[in-house]
Amino acid sequence: MGAEPERVEKELDERDRLLITALLALPVLVLSMAPGLQFRNWQWLCFVLAAPVAVWSAWPFHTRAVRGLRHSAATMDTLVSLGVLASFSWSAYALFLGGAGRPGMRMPLTLLPSAPNGVAHLYLGAVVGVPLFVLTGRFLETRARRGTGAAPRSLAQLAGKEVSVRDGRSERLVPVAHLAQGEVAQAGKARAPRPADSVAGVFVPVVLALAVTALGFWLGAGADPQAAVTACATVLVAACPCALGLATPTALMAATGRGAQLGVVVSGPRALEGSRHIDVVVLDKTGTLTSGHMTVARVTAVPQGLGKEAVLRLAGAVERGSKDPLGRALTAYAQRAVPDEPLPEVSDLRAVPGRGVSGRADGRLVEVLPPDGALPAVLADAVRAAEAAGHTSVSVRVDGVAEAVIEMGDVVRPGSYRAVDRLRRLGVHPVLATGDREAPARAVASALGIDEVHARCTPEGKADLVRRLQEQGRRVSVVGDGVNDAAALAGADLGIALGSGTDVAIAAADVTLVRGDIEAVADAVRLARRTLGTIRANLVWAFGCNVVTVPLAMVGLLTPVLAAAAVSAGSLLVVGNSLRLRAWQPSPARRRSAR
To answer: The whole model's pTM is what?
Structure first.
């Protein structure tokens, strides 16, 4: 319950650290890279401004680097920490012992690390530049993660509502406040690691080895110690992951912002990763491919039974408060059909997703269930007639006796055919999975050109279908809107929920379609693939900068200041490439339909 305030406080701390770092770093960067602006004793001002950045601003990197060292692990934080400390230590030596602290000293911006008049170089620009850009990347990543989670939270107001708890082979909905220790929530998914950290296990040791090699080579060759230390420090600075740290968050922020404009809310990096090789999409029927606005077409009651009105009144009572389209339609119809009598109060209410609902009303046990084979002939005939019409039917039992069959109809969403066709053009195989009976499911599938149909699917059955497809090597997306879809959404490689759906479905999904527009499913897949392509291009640029600058640093053709400038240029290039996503457009067909 306290996670949200802690997260907000952490983001505020990161923001404050970044703002203070920027205020301290910008004057140092300007003076270090613009010799014409260097005034008398400018170097001491830069040192005073750089010291808090090297210690306080970079403190998170230092602590994580030490923590990794204790566990014999090296991360990108190790490079940042070492690069900052090496540059700052050498600059302090240059100021106090190397002659760089003399009044009137000027430090030209040169390509080669030559000391002016025997004065040791200052690398304060690298000291402040590296933490500034890396902190910027981390802050953007935090904002992206928080921003992408805010839209689904505001859609569903997930906090403090209901979750699905597995109890043996069944599941039940309980309020969040009633969760007990040891109970399992089905929406949990592993967060995708940052690409910078995923390559750190190889990249960081290689960079450290190259830095030590450069130091040893220059000292062994009899070079001036300044040249040796400069080469070592420049390798560390050139390899600092500024652009690498910006590659994912900037692309994610641009993509999620553009997606939100199109009504597609992406939960985070895992959604993008999950969409990379999606080749199967499992589609729910009611409320997803169809409008979900069910209407009661016919009520068939057994002769000499309780009668239509009495059965409707009892069935409407136990379905009152249901989030299922069938239940809502039945309750509304019952209230209209029997306007003079209020629906009775219900006790012992039990809802089993995908199977039905039961409760006690007027002292009777009332069950609204899918039809089975033990129905009287008149009700069995009503079920067959409903199937022939492509409608859905439910049976109503009172005290264990079948009293009526209620037939309901739905219509296919206007954009469902285009959505299925666009997914097929993207190389994605559509599959229909529904808890409805075979005939209504086949009727909708036939209208949309879907060949593979799985009817009478329970929530567990949908989740099992996803697992079977994954075991066959398929990458599976699930599109749904109800409680029945939540387990499948959670287990899919890419879960897509309609914003008009239930809280549980939205919580379990990776992507939420705000407007409930089924055509946006293809847009979500295309946007995610384009974003992944942008991230890959960013990573190529980031590593390409390292490939060019690290060898130059090793042979003494680059100073730490210029290395920091090159890293900054790479960061700007990555940001610019990511911002191109803000102009991404869906297909022409989608734009026409939006108008």
So the answer is: 0.64
